[in-house]
TrEMBL record:
It comes from the Eukaryota. Transmembrane segments: none annotated. PANTHER family: RECEPTOR-INTERACTING SERINE_THREONINE-PROTEIN KINASE 1 (PTHR44329:SF6), SERINE/THREONINE-PROTEIN KINASE TNNI3K-RELATED (PTHR44329). It comes from Danionella cerebrum. InterPro entries: Kinase-like_dom_sf (IPR011009), Prot_kinase_dom (IPR000719), Ser-Thr/Tyr_kinase_cat_dom (IPR001245), Ser/Thr_kinase_AS (IPR008271), Ser/Thr_Kinases-Pseudokinases (IPR051681). GO terms for molecular function: ATP binding; JUN kinase kinase kinase activity. Residues 15-157 form the Protein kinase domain. PROSITE patterns: PROTEIN_KINASE_DOM, PROTEIN_KINASE_ST. This is Protein kinase domain-containing protein. Pfam families: PK_Tyr_Ser-Thr.
Length: 157
């Protein structure tokens, strides 16, 4: 079983775990360093006994779909780790964490709230146009980039 040409398979040995991050809904989420990608986010999807061929192919198919998405309002999937007992996502680092954390720390003016909503809608429209249904839209799944712009996280695998 091979990884699709648009989906990069990354070896876990190419990542150096730096620190745990607090914006993971499930599984472990770490800030990592990669020798060519720089700082990335590693999200463990599954750890345990090796999966069957059908289960692994399902992960590959969804990973392939997600890796083809490219929009300024959607978090980019950079690759996957598919090793026995370790299925993980490698995503771009969005440095300011999730929207919920930001809203707890910062008083956001109404004008900025309007921009936040529009940026989330841009990401959702793009996903919908690409036949991706986001089943868990909530502030924890909206990430805030270094310039305080929103990115929708849709990497559940």
């Amino acid at each position: 079983m091979s990884v699709s040409s648009s989906l990069s398979q990354i070896s876990s040995t190419d990542l150096i775990r730096k620190e745990p991050l607090d914006y993971g809904g499930f599984g472990e989420v770490y800030l990592c360093s990669h020798k060519t990608l720089g700082h990335v986010v590693l999200k463990s999807v599954y750890t345990g006994p090796p999966r069957s061929g059908n289960q692994k192919q399902s992960l590959l198919d969804e990973g392939d779909l997600m890796s083809k998405l490219s929009h300024r309002r959607v978090v980019k999937l950079l690759g996957v780790i598919l090793e026995d007992g370790n299925y993980s996502l490698v995503m771009e680092l969005i440095p300011r964490g999730n929207l919920l954390s930001m809203l707890k720390k910062v008083a956001v003016p109404l004008s900025v709230k309007g921009r936040i909503i529009l940026e989330i809608l841009e990401g959702m429209v793009y996903l919908t146009e690409n036949r991706v249904i986001h089943k868990d839209l909530k502030p924890e799944n909206i990430l805030v980039d270094k310039n305080f712009h929103m990115k929708v996280k849709k990497h559940s695998l």
